[in-house]
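How a chain folds remains the central question behind the approach discussed here. For one protein, we set the task of working out the structure tokens from the amino acid sequence alone. The sequence in question and its structure tokens are set out directly beneath this paragraph.

_____
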Amino acid sequence: MNPASATPDQLPPLGLTWGIKRSFIAYIRDLPDGTVSATDGATVVESSLFCFSPEESDYDVALGTGVLRFRGDVRLAGHHGMLFVRLLDPWIAFTGGRGVLSISTGGQGRTAVGFVHASAPREIDGSLVWADVDVVISPEGAELFDGQYAAQQSMDPLFIRVKV
């Protein structure tokens, strides 16, 4: 996905598209009891990328601040229940090109799973598009992945496309 030279047909789908860590997804899929699911607004695209549907957001393009909200439930499991990761309704709260990627805890709270650094979005065909957004895991995200990835370790980049 390269929005810099993209035509409307080549744009990422509307929403937040993220592979999390594709090697991790491949590992889970190779487990005898490994399961990968995407529901409630999340879908699987390009075999190992997850797309979370856009929700109403309050992002200010001129200031580069605000919250982009997405909906969906991705669950990764294996090792007879010993491995379980759930990414529910991710949001990105931006302040000047930097942001915090958080997920719902299933109640009223949110947990920061990563930090993002993105240049300004490009406006393409009525959408704001961020491509190849760098993501590093937060301390809470490291806990979510049971220490498999250390805090500040790079995860796969993400893509965002929302209507202007």
About this structure: The longest helix spans residues 22-30. The helical segments are 22-30, 139-144. The chain is about 10% helix and 50% strand. The radius of gyration is 15 Å.
